């Protein structure tokens, strides 16, 4: 498990380096909406984000309770994290990989790059759903795809409406940090 953790950290660093190299080209930061919180008034954007996240969480609750009861959505992750010695270095590495780097990379890749590319070739809803399906599938947990898709669709729609990845990244970081704390408190 420690090797997996440090593999995640190394992978995250490589992915962030590649994203940084991509974003260095003039205009790309603005094109992806990383330079502002978007064209929607901030209070309205926060309200929309709240409604979308609540809707995704309600869907996840119903899905986990009635469709796949008894399947621990984060059970495997909790077991892996529990097997890692809780040293300050390992805790910092896990927090970095799961709550900071993963949300940055996923939002840039799946919303900023993939959703935008798909939206040039299909209706926006198709782009949001297809990029969300790919994002959910990349997590390699087949039973969790509907739950992961619901949150990904919420993030995709929020990005479409605001034109900014900033709020998505912050919400995704908060979601992953909360999930990390939840899995750690269970063990």
Rg, rounded, reads 17 Å
Structural class: mainly alpha
Share in helix: over 70%
| Total beta strands | 0
Low-confidence stretches: none
Describe the largest sheet: none
Distance between the termini: 15 Å
Beta-strand percentage range: under 5%
Mean pLDDT: 91
- The total count of helices amounts to 8
Shape: globular
Walk me through what this model shows.
By secondary structure, the protein is mostly helical. It has eight helices and no strands. It has helices at residues 2-23, 28-31, 42-67, 75-82, 88-119, 124-138, 145-162, 166-186. Helix 1 crosses helix 5 (88-119) and helix 4 (75-82) crosses helix 8. The longest helix is centred in the middle third of the chain and has 32 residues, at 88-119. It is globular.
Sequence-ordered SSE layout with sheet pairings:
Elements (H helix, E strand, L loop, with lengths): L1 H22 L4 H4 L10 H26 L7 H8 L5 H32 L4 H15 L6 H18 L3 H21 L1
Write out key terms for the chains shown.
mainly alpha, globular, about 190 residues, 8 helices
